[in-house]
Specification:
Elements: H1 8-16, H2 19-46, H3 50-53, H4 68-75, H5 81-112, H6 118-127, H7 137-147, H8 153-157, H9 164-175, H10 179-187, H11 192-203, H12 205-221, H13 224-229, H14 238-242, H15 253-285
Amino acid sequence: MSNTAPSPRSRRLRRALRPGNVAFWIVLVALTVAFLLPLAFMVSTSFKSATEANALEFSLLPQHPTLDAYREILGSGQIPVLRWLLNSVVTALLHSAFVVVLATTAAYALARIEFPLKRTLFALIVLTMFVPGVIFLIPHFQIVNELGWLNTYASLVVPSAAGAFGVFFLRQFFVGISRSIEEAALLDGCNQWSIFIKIMVPLAKPAIATLAVLAFLASWNDFLWPVFVLFSSDMMTLPAGLAQLQSDNATRYDLLMAGGVVASLPVLAVYVVSQRWIIAGVSAGGVKG
């Protein structure tokens, strides 16, 4: 009989084939398919003809692939998808910048500066996170209307810039930074503003980058608010503009899916570029509080 010990590869294979591990991988694969199937169907439908896309029979793959939907939405003056795309990019970038500036300053003050009722104020800010956003729809609309911002970029950028999540998220990060760094900077002659700009903000880059990406995605995917405050086709963002392709009598699913693919590409690009910042920011921001 051979007493040869099993190789590391054999041990890893045995662990992988344990009933618990097999069940885990089955569930993981099933969830992956469930998430990817709608995306695959969207991309597939975008390459179908108008007749095939509106057919009652389900088919995942196009029978006769065509680029007609992309030609129509990107080359037609009647469907200004490129203009909607530009509006979405501009508003999402401006909104993200506003969120970062406001949340960073407020979070630093709540984490590092002592003032009366600081804990009460922070509790009230966190409490607003539990209030459904749709409740603020009418008040925000009335404010924007009084300011004369309807059908402008300002109506999309400003109202939701001072959100509670960004303040809470960055405060958790600032609280986790050692106070000895600030004390050393004070001994070197730095004031509070210099410490914030030159020391704390650079240290918080992963969390700030994460918040910027999340704010960008929130503005990019927003549908309800732009429908309320934008009236002209040239000012529409991409989600609100694509909704115009639907009607009671006919819906061009090939155009909708092609528009969905176009809308997804910038989001995927942002995620690929910022993936490491998101992982680092979420990991660091959730450790201490």
